[in-house]
Write a structure and sequence with these properties.
By secondary structure, the chain is an alpha/beta fold. The chain has two domains: 47 residues, no CATH class; 196 residues, Rossmann fold. It is 38% helix and 14% strand. It contains nine helices and six strands. It has a four-stranded parallel sheet with strand order 1-6-5-2. It binds zinc ion (2 copies). One zinc ion binds next to helix 2.
């Protein structure tokens, strides 16, 4: 574990050298002051919609000002197996580009700043200490092809920032599901059925888990993971994502 940690620090240090952090805005790439929070310039900060004011009491998705219920439409219609889920920003065109750069452009330093925002959210919501941080896994075939699970990289940073341990090996994806964003709500649910498996349920029993993913759309992925974790005896499941679609 220690050896792994120092190796990770070394890799991270090298990456910081290749892509120095806090020298350019992660969104518009204009130069910024080193102290700028989350490496986002003042004008981009104004453009991002942070999930701060009105959010769903279950999934954390931002809600429209004039929408009255406490739960979003999804959470009223679907049973979610996690206790609460939180998110940091609204998924719009700029955030889409940012996530694309992390996922396919492999610009890992972006994950560092996303994790900073997510850790700030965890602190703001005063989440109790978790036994495990678990990233939503990719199927091995997809991970091999992409060489990279963005949720795992984000989780590594959250783990370092919170001091909570991460386990990226126990929850695995056994179904190589089609990319979700082209599917309807119903298709997503069917697609996600029995997509995950827990290798060592004894490590999950009576434990508090924080699931981590980059984006929350209908919640079907997190829901499917949560269901498996509960089946393995998890005590409580929380989830955090970087971005979520606005409730419509
Ligand atoms: Zn900017
Ligand atoms: Zn909701």
């Amino acid at each position: 574990m220690e050896a792994y940690k120092s190796l990770w620090n070394l890799v991270d240090g090298l990456l910081d050298f290749v892509y120095p952090r806090n020298i350019e805005c992660i969104l518009c790439r204009d130069p910024i002051e080193k102290k700028e929070k989350y490496a986002i310039c003042a004008s981009c900060k104004k453009k991002i919609h942070f999930a701060e004011e009105k959010t769903c009491k279950k999934c954390g998705k931002p809600l429209e000002e004039l929408y009255l219920p406490e739960l979003c439409h999804d959470c009223m219609m679907t049973k979610h197996f996690f206790t609460r889920s939180y998110t940091c920003v609204v998924y719009d065109e700029e955030i889409k580009t940012l996530l694309y750069r992390l996922k396919y452009g492999k610009q890992r330093y972006l994950a560092y700043h996303m994790a900073e925002m997510m850790t700030a959210k965890i602190k703001e919501k005063e989440l109790e200490q978790m036994h495990w941080i678990i990233p939503v896994p990719l199927h091995t075939a997809k991970k091999r092809q992409r060489e990279f699970n963005q949720s795992e990289i984000i989780s590594q940073y959250i783990s370092r920032q919170t001091g909570w341990p991460m386990d990226e090996k126990n929850l695995i994806r056994i179904k190589d599901t089609a990319t979700q964003n082209k599917l309807s709500r119903e298709e997503r649910k069917i697609n996600m059925k029995n997509a995950f498996q827990i290798l060592k349920p004894e490590k999950i029993k009576a434990k508090k888990i924080l699931l981590v993913d980059d984006i929350y759309t209908t919640g079907s992925t997190l829901n499917s993971c949560s269901k498996e974790l509960l089946r393995a005896g998890a005590l409580d499941i929380y989830a955090i994502t970087f971005a979520a679609g606005k409730n419509i």
